[in-house]
Write a structure and sequence with these properties.
The chain is built from three helices and nine strands, in the order E-H-E-H-E-E-E-H-E-E-E-E. The strands form two sheets. The chain has a six-stranded mixed β-sheet with strand order 4-3-2-5-6-7. A hairpin with a 2-residue loop joins strand 8 and strand 9. It starts with a strand and ends with a strand.
Length: 166
């Protein structure tokens, strides 16, 4: 099966920059936001997004990670690197690399249900539009329709992110 490059590193950076501006616009009245990256690939996007927001705005950006078993979401708990007290009353932005069925993002939002947040937003680099669950990304770097047999992967090599269609 051949691979198609969907987004080069430069294109990924352009998308992340646009997402940063959108998030800043949405949260311009806030003092700080919490960016939570879903490990592994979602966190790679989240780190770059946090850097982009810091470079264009006065927002204080708190970075955190969320660990979930992407292949068996119901197995085990979701692990957050930041305590609930550090997120109370704040804007939380949950970031993943690719939104496929919505299952990972749905399970990733579970720990936030018991925290009194100001608001929560979801961001993905690529939205494949194959919803099986009633969840959507508030912000997407790229939306595309693919077949169910095709896979979209975000890969990091030498500090560069690229998106492929397999």
């Amino acid at each position: 099966m051949s691979r198609t490059l969907l987004l080069s590193n430069q294109q990924v950076q352009q998308r992340i920059s646009r997402l940063a501006w959108q998030l800043y616009e949405d949260n311009a009245d806030e003092k700080e936001v919490v960016i939570v990256g879903i490990l592994q690939s979602g966190n790679q996007v989240a780190v770059r997004l946090a850097e982009a927001i810091r470079s264009i705005s006065p927002l204080q950006v708190i970075s955190a990670t969320l660990r979930i078993n992407k292949h068996q979401q119901t197995a085990g708990d979701v692990e957050l690197s930041l305590s609930a007290d550090n997120m109370e009353g704040k804007v939380v932005i949950v970031v993943d690399d690719v939104l496929n069925s919505g299952k990972t993002l749905l399970y990733a939002l579970r720990p936030f249900l018991s925290i009194d947040l100001r608001k929560i937003r979801t961001v993905v680099l690529v939205d494949r539009n194959h919803r099986r669950y009633p969840i959507a990304a508030d912000y997407a770097g790229l939306s595309l329709a693919t077949t169910l047999k095709e896979h979209v992967t975000v890969e990091e090599k030498d500090g560069q992110l690229q998106v492929f269609l397999d």
